[in-house]
Amino acid sequence: MSDVRVTPWQDGSLPAPPPGLLAGMKARRPGGELIGIDRVLLKSFPLATGWNGLLGRVRAEFDLALEYRELIMLRVAVLNRADFEWGVHYPAYLQAGGTEEKCEALRGDATESGLFNEEELALLALTDQSTRQVEVDAGVIDEVKRLFGEARTVEAVATVAAYNMVSRFLVALAV
Questions:
Q1: How many Cα atoms within 13 Å fall on the side-chain side of residue 54?
Q2: pLDDT tens digits, 114-139
Q3: Whole-angstrom Cα distance, residue 169 to residue 165?
Q4: CB 55 within 8 A of CB 24
Q5: Residue 134 region, left (φ>0) first, then alpha (ψ -120 to 50), else beta?
Q6: What is the DSSP secondary structure assignment for residue 16, as one 8-state letter?
Q7: Using omega within 30 degrees of 0 as the cis cutoff, is the peptide bond preceding 15 cis?
Q8: Which among 128, 114, 69 has a CA at the least distance from the CA of 93?
Q9: What is the pTM of this model?
């Protein structure tokens, strides 16, 4: 984290985070350790609190399968050149059921790879359009709704949006 554009929060820094904030952030991480983005978020306790709540729900409470959410997160990381985000979600995607081959395909023209099923291709179309141009064709949304239903479509769109926020934060501050 030597090139980060703000000084990351350090253990013991004053002012101290509100009670429970550090514990909540650590609870979301494997091994219970803060990572680079956490230490930058802790420069603003209100931001860290809201971020932890939102991203914790996206990561742990949505009905859309974790493998699909991690697929979206990786594709957003590629499209936005968010290497830190890729590094965090690559092992999570593999653990959720993704493959090395699909990871490699996500770095290129994933839709032409022949590796992804109908559901994954619909989510990739959603992710690519939303990330690259913000506006998403009605037909793409209709296909995601057909495959996943409305509630999971909302969750898919929210995952794309949330991880575009994450990647833009990471890239802007060189985390």
A1: 14
A2: 999 999 999 999 999 999 999 999 99
A3: 6
A4: no
A5: left
A6: P
A7: yes
A8: 69
A9: 0.94
